[in-house]
Amino acid sequence: xxxxxxxxxxxxxxxxxxxxGAGLLYACALKYFVFPAEVxxxxxxxxxxxxxxxxxxxxxFLVIYIAAQAVLAAFAFFKISRTFAVRTMLTVGAVxxxxxxxxxLEFANPEPQNERILLVLFxxxxxxxxxxxxxxxxxxxxxxxxxxxxxxxxxxxxxxxxAIAAAAVSTTYGLILAFLKSGDIEPVINTLMYxxxxxxxxxxxxxxxxxxxxxxxxxxxxxxxxxxxxxxxxAAPHRTYTIQEATGGFSSxxxxxxxxxxxxxxxxxxxxxxxxxxxxxxxFHHDIEGISSNYxxxxxx
Length: 301
Known about the structure:
Layout: H1 5-34, H2 43-55, H3 58-79, H4 82-101, H5 113-136, H6 144-155, H7 160-182, H8 185-209, E1 215-221, H9 225-235, E2 242-247, E3 254-263, H10 267-277, E4 282-288
Antiparallel strand pairs: 1-3, 1-4, 2-3
Helix pairs in contact: 1-4, 1-5, 2-3, 2-7, 3-4, 5-8, 6-7, 7-8, 9-10
């Protein structure tokens, strides 16, 4: 990036195009995989989808979806950041445009059941990827992702966890409508199973590809601990490190371990600088759970 300064000036435009692409990808996941399988989505999307299934009118989804996202975008503007809210609206706009104008394709039928499970799994993966892409570009696909971003910033928890919590209300609502429509418990249980598969698939995909709130302890040591410490701070200026005295088990020599707690998002940058400045250094890292609430993570927006 430093070799091509003009790319820095284009970065906001490229990011906006990226979140629009994420919106189109999410629209494809919904239109070609999720809706044909009649899966109940999470949050307000789930309420909108279940209502559309019940009345047999896909337009109801768009009406409820747009109204809900407008309210949530306002929440994002005041509670998270202006950039996050604007890029979320771009993503949501791309979703609406995709659902409205993408051509209908009958390449997969949800029956028999083995094809329905493929639709659900692939739709969940695509949806999770779209959510992760938008979040990495400081936007979101809206709905529970907005609340998830706020929750993650406040409590330092993975964003995908909120999707599972939001699914409880929407799934209950959708199952009630499914029972009222069919009058039979069997299709309700069937829908519940496929909905659960979709929710956990998309949430796990999101958590694996958007790792801003996943933390690691990085331990490194070499001939010059001061150089290692400066590399950490230069790569992540808002981070610090500790130096711990240790003794080599084979040589019995005194060594100093340099440790820091960083996010998965920051890890590659820190390691690149350590490799550059101290190529002979030895390092390892491992994931951690649970950390003080005053640990600083930059806002998504």
